Amino acid sequence: MQVHKYDVVIVGAGGAGMRAAIESGQRARTAVLTKLYPTRSHTGAAQGGMCAALANVEEDNWEWHTFDTVKGGDYLVDQDAAEVMAKEAIDAVLDLEKMGLPFNRTPEGRIDQRRFGGHTRDHGKAPVRRACYAADRTGHMILQTLYQNCVKHNVEFFNEYYVLDMLTVDEEFTVDGVTRIRKRVAGVVSYDLATGELHVFQAKSVVFASGGVGKVFKTTSNAHTLTGDGMGIAFRRGIPLEDMEFFQFHPTGLAGLGILLSEAARGEGAILRNSEGERFMERYAPTIKDLAPRDIVARSMANEVREGRGAGPNKDYVLLDLTHLEPAHIDAKLPDITEFARTYLGVEPYTEPVPVFPTAHYAMGGIPTNIKAEVLQDNDTVVPGLYAAGEVACVSVHGSNRLGTNSLLDINVFGKRAGIAAAEYALTADFVEIPDNPLVETERLLDTMRSSEGGERVAQIRQELQDIMDANVQVFRTEQTLKEALEVIDKLEERYTRVTVQDKGKRFNLDLLEAVELGFLLDMAKVMTAAALHRKESRGGHFREDYPERDDKNFMTHSMAYKDPTATETSGVRLETKPVVFTRYQPMERKY
Amino acid sequence: MSTPTVEKEPASKVELAPGVGGGGEIPTFDVTLRVRRYNPEVSDEAHWDEWKLTMYGTDRVLDALHKVKWEHDGTVSFRRSCAHGVCGSDAMRINGRNRLACKTLLKDLDTSKPILVEPIKGLPVEKDLIVDMEPFFQSYREIMPFLINRGHEPTRERLQSAEERERFDDTTKCILCAACTSSCPVFWTDGQYFGPAAIVNAHRFIFDSRDDAGDMRLEILNDKEGVWRCRTTFNCTEACPRGIQVTQAIAEVKQAILSRKV
């Protein structure tokens, strides 16, 4: 067993992880562990922009941005966190520019800004130009710029080191004269893909920045590697997961494939049409139409298809129409996504509308943190030394529905905060002793799968999981579909114990890797479905046909899902609640 | 660049042409996939394995590889992540040309013959289609791929005109997939050569009006393993999945070295 010692270990090298590393690496001895190479992370797939109230092209201010974020999240947003994000957005963009990010420019040479869904002037009066962008590859430029700056600061990366477990110890602490137990983090266990060796990383601080879990769904914009590993590790180690019923379906995935076409297309003037050629968003959101937030647009699209106005031979998608835009404008502002339509569907966006349908895109929920990016083990107990940022975390700035561009903002604002906080904590704290037999859980997991001859195939179970999640836990949900999904997941989990890995070798055993990932996917699908069953109302990205109204009296709370084998009714997931933080906005009806 | 988005509202309703938006039954066809296999845990010798697969018209080479791995042989090993050409994980040699497996549609290949899939050349093979990327990233790091600005840090953004921004737009597209570098005959015979990708990333900063270290990068690339090794075979430009004019970028760096010396 190899043991490494660092002040700070960061798990994941996407936007949040590298933004944290740039801060932490300059303050404390830092290692970044990633199961990929840093530049392969899915931040690079983000397209449209990053919002900040720079007011470079029209009047704007961070308070309007806060309001839009809160309203966009259907009032489930923690307003203190939204305020932090909207205020610090301005510096987050300027930091990136100073690091070298090549933003598009105004004629005056300032950072240009464009419209994006749900971002408005003066509390909903009209769309506002708030999104800073680099063509339609803003995420790519953020990922590259952060990696470049990690190179500049000599950040130490462990590439293709897959973190499989977190090591914690329980300790007593006293608050208000009452003695309680809390966790402390001691480090992580990692599997070196190249050699198959296990490594223990002892650390004073651990930052989870390992991204999302889109691969629980079949139709998704997410990378194959987004399998909820970080959320899964935390959950298995007794950390709750917050608001996991809220998953964002991005309206414009390429039909049948799920590949993302940025909302920037609609920001630049593209519109949605049904099979009758009708601009149907005029009916669902009369004021801002196609630039309504994603949950509303996705649901409207699904509804058009359900009511028989879908396009195509199977009437199962709608159309994104760019044909009224100048080809030169499309080339300048949307080159990559129009190329996707040509490459993957053979459709020419200059002259033909593009088939699109909602695609699973983003987990609003995740590991609960406070605004310092410290992880909570319940509603208010901080786990000393443990941090989370980005999609893996739930601060919560996105509430029940994230606004477009706010994820690139989230990773920069809270990635930076996590990096600073983790390093500062490490400079004052001592190492926690590694528990005895730190590898026992991980070895058991790997050995079971390597030696099993049960004959079940990873790909088969994964496909059945993705099929049931797409069918039953997507844009529309009911008690019946959710219960049915839980039953199916339980059965798949049972079959998973007999999964057989064909590759028995140590070197780059990606067969084994996929089997481990499937375990996390099953856990997370269960948590998402149980949480969705628990929330008997409709809010943001979570729409219950049997409870179609928002119910502030009973459900204006975050959900907290704990692993609990005694909760047999909900497949071993116990649900509790956590209050939402209000500062200045009282809930109103959400109309656009 | 800051012209407002369409001010004229598009029509509420339009007549759609019949069959608009593509679609229809997706055709299926059979392909033979022949993959170069190598696993030093098993044997020092590489060999070829072959599978006959039924695939769909929208499938890519990556889908065929997944079908093999998921349904036939779990030991077949390759990197991939985003599956739509932006992460750069799955550069490989497909019928002798460097391509991203996730961007190469099967229907665009000659499916009457076996499709040959091999690891990219010039980097040590680790297992099957997986190569050691470290030498590639080492060259990248050596050209100082980060903005160096010696002036006072302004409180707001540094100003840059749209034209200045446009000057290096092409080379900002690089995803570091190594398709270009590993298609270069010079790199195959001399692994010390910086290679096209490192030069592309140097270009991205040399021609950025905000950067002050162009001279240092030009000096690094004026080295005997630098730009002068380029023989303008255009393999790199042909290989780039992002459509970057790689050979032209290299020529511009050469020109900058020369004009600096004058």
TrEMBL record, chain A:
Biochemical pathway: Carbohydrate metabolism; tricarboxylic acid cycle; fumarate from succinate (bacterial route): step 1/1
Top-level EC class as recorded in UniProt: oxidoreductase
SUPFAM superfamilies in UniProt: FAD/NAD(P)-binding domain, Succinate dehydrogenase/fumarate reductase flavoprotein C-terminal domain, Succinate dehydrogenase/fumarate reductase flavoprotein, catalytic domain
Cofactors that this protein relies on: FAD
Cofactor note: Flavinylated by SdhE, about 5% flavinylation occurs in the absence of SdhE.
NADP found in the keyword field: no
Compartment list: Membrane
Binding positions for substrate per the UniProt entry: 250, 262, 361, 402
Location, primary (coarse class): membrane
GO MF entry, a single one: steroid dehydrogenase activity, acting on the CH-CH group of donors
Chain coiled-coil ranges: 475-502
Pfam families on file: FAD_binding_2, Succ_DH_flav_C
EC number annotated for this UniProt entry: 1.3.5.1
Modified residues annotated as Tele-8alpha-FAD histidine in this record: 42
Reactions catalysed: a quinone + succinate = fumarate + a quinol
Annotated binding of FAD, by residue: 12-17, 34-49, 229, 391, 407-408
TM regions (residue ranges): none
Domain FAD-dependent oxidoreductase 2 FAD-binding as annotated: residue spans: 7-408
Boundaries of every Fumarate reductase/succinate dehydrogenase flavoprotein-like C-terminal domain copy: 462-592
Family stated for the protein in its record: Belongs to the FAD-dependent oxidoreductase 2 family. FRD/SDH subfamily.
NCBIfam families: sdhA_forward, sdhA_frdA_Gneg
Record's protein name: Succinate dehydrogenase flavoprotein subunit
Automatic annotation (TrEMBL), chain B:
InterPro entries xrefs: 2Fe-2S_ferredoxin-like_sf, 4Fe4S_Fe-S-bd, 4Fe4S_Fe_S_CS, Beta-grasp_dom_sf, Helical_ferredxn, SDH/FRD_Iron-Sulfur, Succ_DH/fum_Rdtase_Fe-S, Succ_DH/fum_Rdtase_N
EC number(s) recorded for this UniProt protein: 1.3.5.1
A biological-process GO annotation: tricarboxylic acid cycle
Residue ranges of domain 4Fe-4S ferredoxin-type in the record: 164-186
Molecular function per GO: 2 iron, 2 sulfur cluster binding; 3 iron, 4 sulfur cluster binding; 4 iron, 4 sulfur cluster binding; electron transfer activity; metal ion binding; succinate dehydrogenase (quinone) activity
Obligatory cofactor(s): [4Fe-4S] cluster; [3Fe-4S] cluster; [2Fe-2S] cluster
EC category: oxidoreductase
UniProt xrefs under SUPFAM superfamilies: 2Fe-2S ferredoxin-like, alpha-helical ferredoxin
Keywords assigned by UniProt, alphabetized: 2Fe-2S, 3Fe-4S, 4Fe-4S, Iron, Iron-sulfur, Metal-binding, Oxidoreductase, Tricarboxylic acid cycle
NCBIfam families hit by this protein: dhsB, PRK05950.1
Family: Belongs to the succinate dehydrogenase/fumarate reductase iron-sulfur protein family.
Protein name as annotated: succinate dehydrogenase
Organism: Arthrobacter subterraneus
